[in-house]
Amino acid sequence: MESRAVAEKMSGLGGVARWPSAVREYVSELQAEMRRVTWPSAKQVRATTAVVVAAVLMFAAYFAVVDLLLGRAVNAIFQALARG
Q1: What pLDDT is recorded for position 64?
Q2: Quick one: pLDDT at residue 16?
Q3: Cα separation of 31 and 61, whole Å?
């Protein structure tokens, strides 16, 4: 919504001349918004990072097992067809 306002301000005659003030306004609004952000604590970051790493390892193990089983099944099918 704010980017639309900036685009409208920059459109029309003299849009290039207003560009520096539009950029300054955008940056000041961005800084104000970043002050309102609630950042997670270091403990929360460590906990969620551990959950993500554990989930990635579990999915990797699952896909490794599935890949191994499917690979063996495909090889068995090819060997059976090659003999016949």
Answers
A1: 98
A2: 77
A3: 43
User: How far apart, in Å, are the Cα atoms of 31 and each of 18, 22, 28, 37?
Assistant: 20, 14, 5, 10
So where are the chain's domains?
A: 1-37, 40-84
CA separation for the pair 51, 44 (Å, rounded): 11
Distance from C-alpha of 30 to C-alpha of 13, rounded to nearest angstrom: 26
Q: CB of 51 within 8 A of CB of 43?
A: no
Name, in order, each residue with C-beta under 8 angstroms of 9's C-beta and a sequence gap of 6 or more: 15, 18, 22
C-alpha span between 60 and 70 (Å, rounded): 15
Q: Helices 2-10 and 19-36, interaxial angle, to 10°? A: 170
Predicted pLDDT at 54? 98
Which tens digit of pLDDT belongs to each residue from 32-80? Answer: 999 999 999 999 999 999 999 999 999 999 999 999 999 999 999 999 9
